Amino acid sequence: MRSAGTRRVIAAGMVAALIVVGSALDSIAQSPAPATPTPNQPVSRPAPGTAQRRLVRPTTFPGGRPYAPAVRVGDALFLSGQIGRHPTTAAQPDGIAAQTRQALANIGEILKADGLGYQHLVKCHVYLSSMDDYAGMNQVYASVFTDRVPARTTVEAAGLPSDAAVQIACVAHAALDGIAVVRPAAGSLPAPLGPYSAAVWAGNTLYLSGMGGQQPADRRISDVLDEQVTQTLANIGTTLTAAGVGFGQIASTTAWITRSDEISGFAGALARPFAATPVPPTGVLFVPRLPGAIKAELTVVARRQPDRRRLHVPVVSAPEAGADVAAQFRAVAARLRRAVADGGLHWDDVADVHVYLADLADLGGVDTLFRELFPSQPARTVVRVRSAGTARIQVALVAAR
């Protein structure tokens, strides 16, 4: 069982209710940086006491990064976020269509390097620099899927690395017979706004698409954030029921919110469906826009059965560590280490890391520190979000063995 600290609700910057991990700003045991892998070769690094894991690096991708293009653990493949930049030439075309096409081509190369294809994708996160590009992204995105489409969350970021128009981060599942699309009854959910499935099973893990508060019948949506959250949870409940699970089997939740000034009732609205079970670990991120009139979108991961081999830790921040981003990053890593240990896993089991920055100018320093704090070279995605008070860096991760 996780410690009570992993479900402690605190105020973040006095504007958001967050369920965060850990409470002590422990000093981090420093490990020497690992030897740099041979460029363009897959690398294996066993985590202590666990099965072998594999870092996946296509031959066309540059080496020397502090993270891997993808990490394979069992049947799960965690892919780093891909922007529309060619991995060999570093050329980045103009326009959402061309950049989406290149980002998907990069994803295809990573999948191919592990013997997989687009049909193995089960969940993707799409970050846009402008929600005005939503339709253009959708058109290209749909073109790579001939049958089943993965679950998906799409948000507008406050900024993306290299001034990219789009970044796409995905999870794939190697065993096709372990992938199953959840199809709620017709009319029980709002009509989808793009090419995505309501939810997809990948073995024991259920990935839901990001969901908002539209009414199923006509996509009407309240202008009040709390009411949107209530309807969002109703839509999530419909999806969970169709999948044969319930709210008590949710492993983690991430809330994407556009209005920090309306956050006061969020925690109460979130807690209502969990009257008979603890509220799962939940993190809040502020972004400029969401699709349509949505003010709050929830991304949920659930389990068919408890699984101590997989841990999803939502966003953690540490603004009290001081104004320096490095000090905050070290404090965040300390909390994450404790969460991973409380979950019965090892720090080298970290497979996927999402870094949310208040200022992309901090990325250079974060890169340097990332190599030290995450020597096992997990997959990584970096996005700029709106600042939560004085937090300069927020980090979420998945650990798996």
Could you describe the 3D structure shown?
- This protein has 401 residues and is α+β, with helices and mostly antiparallel strands.
- It is globular, with a radius of gyration of 19 Å.
- Strand 8 (121-128), helix 2 (134-142) and strand 9 form a beta-alpha-beta unit.
- Helix 1 (96-113) packs parallel to helix 2 (134-142) and helix 5 runs parallel beside helix 6.
- The relative contact order is 0.18.
- The longest helix has 19 residues, at 225-243.
- The chain has helices spanning 96-113, 134-142, 225-243, 266-271, 325-342, 363-373; strands at 8-12, 16-20, 43-44, 54-56, 70-73, 76-79, 82-83, 121-128, 151-156, 166-173, 179-182, 199-202, 205-208, 250-257, 282-286, 296-303, 310-317, 350-357, 379-384, 393-400.
- The protein contains six helices and 20 strands.
- It has a single domain (42-400), classed as RutC-like (60s Ribosomal Protein L30, Chain: A, 2-Layer Sandwich).
